[in-house]
Design a protein that fits this description.
Layout lengths: L1 E2 L2 E7 L13 H9 L1 E6 L5 H6 L10 H4 L4 E2 L8 E2 L4 E13 L4 E13 L16 H4 L3 E4 L2 E3 L12
Antiparallel strand pairs: 1-2, 2-7, 3-6, 4-5, 6-7, 8-9
């Protein structure tokens, strides 16, 4: 959402069910307490795992452990990243705002480190870094159980 400083934004709702319904999700609590977090861009093949990670769990249960997700060291960042994701952004908490009548957390993270897999870097554009969107095949959540992939790509020359 900003390039100086490099910021991203994500929203995190409350726990929808169980004994902790209405409380902040563990992700938001962890970000607020620890100040550092990693944002991954999931690809279409990650759909099943991504969707499974949305299960409401007790605070003591880790999605990484429950789903047997493999993590690896994240060069230049203290936290690990998911091995299966082609893009990982190591962030430091910049700010959290709560919006809405059923408060939703809007989390702003300052990007401190980035991992981009070699196979999605468009070599023809170097030294300018350009990600091959088709190679990344990003997955987006539309709401509920609905997700979307890119579909067909369109390009337009940017005006100067």
């Amino acid at each position: 959402i900003c390039s100086d400083p490099p910021l991203l934004m994500l929203s995190i709702g409350k726990k929808p069910s169980g004994d902790e319904a209405g409380l902040r999700k563990d992700t938001c609590v962890n970000i607020q307490e620890r100040k550092f977090f990693v944002v991954h861009i999931a690809s279409t093949p990650d759909l099943e795992c991504l969707n499974a990670s949305a299960e409401t769990l007790e605070r003591s249960v880790s999605e990484v452990d429950k789903l047997n997700l493999e993590t690896v060291a994240f060069d230049g960042f203290d936290l690990p990243r998911l091995k299966s994701c082609s893009v990982a952004l190591g962030c430091e908490l910049y700010r959290i705002d709560e919006i809405g009548s059923t408060p939703q957390a809007v989390v702003y993270g300052e990007i401190k480190s980035a991992f981009i897999a070699d196979h999605i870097i468009n070599e023809e554009k170097l030294p300018r870094l350009e990600v091959d969107a088709s190679g990344l095949d990003p997955l987006s959540r539309l709401g509920g159980g609905d997700y979307a992939s890119l579909g067909s790509l369109m390009q337009a020359e940017r005006p100067k």
